[in-house]
C-alpha cells in the first residue's frame, strides 16, 4: 500500500485501520456505548465468564470440572453459526446436559438483563439489525484480507448488512490494482495472492525427527539466503509447544541449548505459555497467596530466591544464607515472623523490612471487598514487598509485566458483574484463573523464521513454508461436537460433521499452500504397531529421502590436565570426625569437596522431623528422664504408673524445647539414623560387641555384631553373620582390618587425594556433587571410547 501511494505521487497519507475481525467488533461495541446506540453496557469475555460461573456454580454437575468453559464455547457457537436458540430446542432432542445448559442460558440472560449488560456475542448477533437501522458509525469501505476459509454465518450477515448500508466491502484475497484505496477503508487481516502448489513431502519415523528436520531445513535456508521469510506450520502447536521450542533451540543455538537459554533471535513461535507460568507472574501470584500464619519451606525458598523483589542484587548472598539456614535448622512450616527473623539474621534487612510491611498490610485486608478494591490491595501488598523492583527487566519480561497489569485491570473491571463484595480467596481465584487461561507470547521482534499454528499461518505470505504432521489422523481430523448442544441443532457447524471437517481441512491446506512460493511438508509414521500414513488430501506423492542435516559446527570445549591431588594438610587442620573417613571411603573427591571446599548439601525440608532432629529429641528426652534418678536401683523402685508418668513428662518437656523456636515444627515421619563403626576403635580395651539403637516410627530395636553371643536381640554373633561379614574371620582380625582401613583413609585425605573414584554405584547414588565432579560425563566418555 505504501509503494502504491508513493507511485501515485502522494507524500503523506492516513494509514488505514487494520484489525482482526474480533478487534473490529470490539471497536464497534465501544463506539456504540459512547454514542448511546445501545442502552446496555457491553461486557468483555472475562466479565461474561464471571456471569457464567455465577449461574453454573449454583448447580452440582458431575463430570467436566470447568463446565463454564463448555458453556461459553457452546454460547459462542450458537451465535457464530446462527443456531437455534436454546429456548426453542425441541424437548425430544435434549439430553440431561443440554437441558441443563438451556436452564443456564435462561439464567445468564436474566442476569445480564438485571445488571443492564450485554455480552460480546449477543451484541454481534444484533449488529446486522443495528447497522440496517443506521445506529452504528460505519467506514466508507472495508477490505477483507486473509479470509482463506469461508466466513461464518454471523460474519456473512454482518458483511451483507454493511453492503446494504452502502459500505464498500472488498472480499478479494488480494488486489491487483496499484491505485490507492480510500483513506477511510478498514482492512481485516493480511492478504495472500500466491497460487497453491503441491508440496515436496518428507517421511520420518518419529515426530521429533520431523520437527528436527524442519528446524535444520529452516536454518540451512536462512544461512543460504538470510533475507527470506520462512514459516513452519505445526497443527498441534499448542500441545507440543515445549517440545517444539526445545528442538528448535537445540538446532539453532547448540551452546545456548546446553545452557538452557531462551529462544534464539532467528525464530519465533506464535503461541506461548499461559501467563501464570511466566516466572514474574508466577512469583506475583505466589506472594499474593502467602499466609503469614503458615509458610512452607519451598515457598519460603522461592521468596528468598525471587529476582523480582527489591534489593535482590545487593542481598543475593544474604538471602541465600537465609535460605540455607532455614533448610538446615527450621521445620517444613514456618511463620511469616520466623521468615522475617531469618532474613534479619542473615543480613537481608531490605527483604525483612518488606516482609514486615507486607504482614502489616495483610492483616488489614481481611474484610470483604469488590474486585477492584482487592486489586488495589494486592498492588499495595506487592509494593510493600518491593515486587517488580528487583533486577532490571529484559524486553520479554517488560512485556510480561505489562500484560500482568492489563490482567489486573480486567479483574478490577469485574465490579460491573460481581454483584457483591467477595472474600480474598475468591478475588485471588479470579485473578489466578485468568492468568492461567491467558496465553502470552512476546511480540515478534522481526525473526525470519516463524513457527505457527494453522489458523495463525492462514492468510499470511512467506518465501518458504514447511507443514508438519501431514498424516491422515490430523488431516482432516475427527469431527467435534459441542456436548451441550443437541446433535441435530449443530448439524450445519463444519467441525461437527465428518463432511464439514473434510471440507474445512481441504480449504485450510489449500490456503497454507498459497502462503508461499516454496512449500514442503512432512509426516511421521510412528511405531510399527500403529503406523500412520500421509493424508489422502495429498495423493500420489513420492517421498523424498528424510535426510535434511546441514553441517553444524560442534561446540569446542577447552581441555585441561587432570590433577587429582590437593595440597597436603597439616595435622589438626581438619574437622568432621569420622565423617571425613566415611566420605574418603565413598569417594576421595567427595571428601575433598565437602570437607575442604565446603560443598554442603542443603536438602529441602520435609514435613515432620528429620533423623538428626529426632535423634536430638530422643537424647533430650533421655536426659530429662534420667535427671534425678541416681542409679538402676532408683529406676527399679518406680511403680508402673510413676514410670509411665515420668516417660510422658520427659517427652513433653523435650517436645516443648523443640517447639519453643518453631511452633510449626512437629508433623509426622522421619528418616533412618546412620552410624559408623569407627567409634569402637577408639575404645580401650576394645569392645566385645557393637550395637546401634535404631529409633524409628515403626519400631525400636538394636542392630550390630558381637564376638560371642550377648543375648541382645538384633546383635548377631560374627560367626553367624551374613553379607559383608560372612568371611570376616575372628573378632580381633576384623577390628585390625577396620583399623588399617581407617588409617589408610585418613592418610589419603591428609595427602590431598581428591580423584573422582567412587567406591561403588551406591556411593554416587547418594551423593549431591554430580554437577561438580561430572561423573556422568566421565562414564559416558569411557563407555564411548571402550572398544566392543
Short overview:
With 788 residues, the protein is of the alpha/beta class. It is built from 31 helices and 17 strands.
What sort of overall outline do the alpha carbons produce when their principal axes are compared? elongated
User: Which strand-content bin applies to the residues?
Assistant: 5-15%
Provide the structure class: alpha/beta
Which regions have little confidence, pLDDT < 50, spanning 5+ residues?
172-192, 258-263, 546-552, 667-675, 781-788
Largest sheet: 6 strands, parallel
- In whole angstroms, the N-to-C terminal distance is 67 Å
Number of strands: 17
Please work out how many helical segments DSSP would assign. Answer: 31
Mean pLDDT: 80
Radius of gyration: 36 Å
Provide the helix percentage: 40-55%
Strand order of the largest sheet: 7-14-13-8-12-9
Report what the structure shows:
There is one protein chain. 47% of the residues lie in helices and 9% in strands. The protein is an alpha/beta fold and 788 residues long. A 6-stranded parallel β-sheet has the order 7-14-13-8-12-9. Strands 1-6-4-5 form a 4-stranded parallel β-sheet. Residues 172-192, 258-263, 546-552, 667-675 and 781-788 have low confidence and may be disordered.
Amino acid at each position: 500500500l505504501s509503494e502504491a501511494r508513493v507511485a501515485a505521487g502522494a507524500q503523506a497519507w492516513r494509514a488505514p485501520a487494520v484489525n482482526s475481525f474480533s478487534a473490529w467488533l470490539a471497536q464497534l461495541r465501544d463506539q456504540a456505548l459512547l454514542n448511546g446506540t445501545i442502552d446496555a453496557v457491553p461486557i468483555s469475555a472475562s466479565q461474561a465468564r464471571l456471569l457464567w460461573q455465577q449461574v453454573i456454580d449454583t448447580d452440582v454437575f458431575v463430570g467436566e470440572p470447568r463446565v463454564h468453559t463448555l458453556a461459553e464455547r457452546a454460547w459462542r457457537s450458537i451465535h457464530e453459526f446462527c443456531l437455534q436458540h436454546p429456548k426453542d430446542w425441541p424437548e425430544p432432542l435434549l439430553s440431561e446436559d443440554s437441558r441443563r445448559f438451556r436452564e443456564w442460558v435462561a439464567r445468564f440472560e436474566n442476569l445480564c438483563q438485571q445488571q443492564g449488560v450485554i455480552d460480546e456475542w449477543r451484541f454481534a448477533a444484533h449488529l446486522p439489525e443495528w447497522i440496517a437501522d443506521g445506529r452504528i458509525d460505519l467506514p466508507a469501505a472495508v477490505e477483507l484480507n486473509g479470509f482463506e476459509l469461508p466466513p461464518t454465518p454471523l460474519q456473512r450477515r454482518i458483511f451483507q448488512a454493511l453492503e446494504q448500508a452502502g459500505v464498500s466491502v472488498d472480499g478479494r484475497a488480494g488486489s491487483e490494482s496499484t491505485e490507492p484505496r480510500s483513506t477511510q477503508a478498514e482492512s481485516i487481516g493480511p492478504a495472500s495472492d500466491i497460487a497453491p502448489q503441491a508440496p515436496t513431502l518428507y517421511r520420518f519415523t518419529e515426530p521429533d525427527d520431523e520437527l528436527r528436520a524442519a528446524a535444520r531445513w529452516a536454518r540451512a535456508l536462512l544461512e543460504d539466503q538470510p533475507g527470506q521469510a520462512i514459516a513452519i506450520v505445526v497443527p498441534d502447536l499448542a500441545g507440543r509447544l515445549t517440545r517444539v521450542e526445545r528442538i528448535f533451540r537445540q538446532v539453532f543455538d547448540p551452546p545456548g541449548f546446553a545452557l538452557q537459554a531462551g529462544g534464539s533471535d532467528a525464530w519465533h513461535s506464535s503461541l506461548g505459555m499461559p501467563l501464570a507460568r511466566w516466572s514474574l507472574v508466577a512469583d506475583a501470584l505466589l506472594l499474593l497467596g502467602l499466609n503469614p500464619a503458615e509458610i512452607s519451606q519451598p515457598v519460603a525458598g522461592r521468596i528468598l530466591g525471587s529476582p523480582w523483589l527489591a534489593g535482590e542484587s545487593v542481598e543475593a548472598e544474604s538471602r541465600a544464607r537465609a535460605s540455607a539456614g532455614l533448610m538446615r535448622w527450621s521445620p517444613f512450616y514456618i511463620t511469616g515472623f520466623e521468615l522475617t527473623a531469618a532474613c534479619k539474621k542473615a543480613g537481608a534487612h531490605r527483604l525483612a523490612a518488606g516482609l514486615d510491611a507486607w504482614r502489616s498490610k495483610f492483616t488489614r485486608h481481611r474484610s470483604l471487598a469488590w474486585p477492584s478494591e482487592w486489586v488495589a490491595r494486592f498492588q499495595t501488598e506487592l509494593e510493600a514487598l518491593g515486587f517488580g523492583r528487583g533486577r532490571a527487566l529484559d524486553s520479554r519480561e517488560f512485556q510480561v509485566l505489562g500484560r500482568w497489569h492489563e490482567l489486573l485491570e480486567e479483574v478490577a473491571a469485574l465490579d460491573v458483574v460481581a454483584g457483591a463484595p467477595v472474600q480474598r480467596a475468591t478475588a485471588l481465584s479470579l485473578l489466578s484463573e485468568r492468568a492461567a487461561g491467558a496465553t502470552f507470547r512476546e511480540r515478534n521482534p522481526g525473526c525470519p523464521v516463524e513457527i505457527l499454528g494453522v489458523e495463525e499461518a492462514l492468510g499470511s505470505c512467506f518465501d518458504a513454508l514447511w507443514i508438519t504432521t501431514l498424516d491422515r489422523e490430523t488431516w482432516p481430523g475427527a469431527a467435534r461436537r459441542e456436548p451441550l448442544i443437541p446433535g441435530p441443532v449443530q448439524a450445519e457447524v463444519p467441525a461437527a460433521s465428518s463432511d464439514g471437517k473434510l471440507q474445512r481441512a481441504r480449504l485450510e491446506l489449500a490456503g497454507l499452500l498459497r502462503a508461499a512460493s516454496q512449500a514442503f511438508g512432512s509426516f511421521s509414521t510412528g511405531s510399527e504397531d500403529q503406523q500412520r500414513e500421509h493424508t489422502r488430501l495429498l495423493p500420489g506423492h513420492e517421498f523424498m529421502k528424510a535426510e535434511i542435516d546441514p553441517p553444524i559446527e560442534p561446540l569446542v570445549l577447552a581441555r585441561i590436565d587432570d590433577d587429582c591431588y590437593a595440597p597436603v594438610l597439616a595435622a589438626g587442620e581438619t574437622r568432621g570426625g569420622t565423617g571425613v573417613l566415611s566420605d574418603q571411603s565413598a569417594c576421595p573427591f567427595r571428601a575433598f569437596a565437602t570437607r575442604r571446599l565446603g560443598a554442603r548439601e542443603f536438602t529441602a525440608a520435609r514435613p515432620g522431623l528429620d533423623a538428626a532432629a529426632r535423634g536430638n529429641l530422643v537424647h533430650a528426652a533421655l536426659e530429662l528422664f534420667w535427671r534425678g534418678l541416681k542409679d538402676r536401683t532408683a529406676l527399679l523402685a518406680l511403680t508402673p504408673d510413676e514410670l509411665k508418668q515420668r516417660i510422658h513428662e520427659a517427652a513433653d518437656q523435650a517436645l516443648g524445647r523443640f517447639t519453643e523456636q518453631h511452633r510449626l515444627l512437629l508433623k509426622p515421619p522421619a528418616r533412618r539414623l546412620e552410624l559408623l563403626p569407627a567409634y569402637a576403635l577408639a575404645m580401650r580395651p576394645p569392645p566385645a560387641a557393637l550395637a546401634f539403637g535404631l529409633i524409628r516410627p515403626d519400631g525400636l530395636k538394636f542392630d550390630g555384631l558381637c564376638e560371642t553371643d550377648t543375648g541382645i536381640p538384633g546383635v548377631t554373633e560374627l560367626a553367624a553373620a551374613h553379607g559383608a561379614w560372612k568371611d570376616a574371620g575372628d573378632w580381633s582380625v576384623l577390628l585390625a582390618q577396620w583399623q588399617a582401613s581407617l588409617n589408610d583413609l585418613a592418610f589419603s585425605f591428609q595427602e590431598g587425594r581428591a580423584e573422582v573414584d567412587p567406591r561403588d554405584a551406591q556411593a554416587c547414588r547418594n551423593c549431591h556433587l554430580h554437577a561438580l565432579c561430572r561423573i556422568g560425563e566421565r562414564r559416558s566418555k569411557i563407555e564411548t571410547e571402550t572398544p566392543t
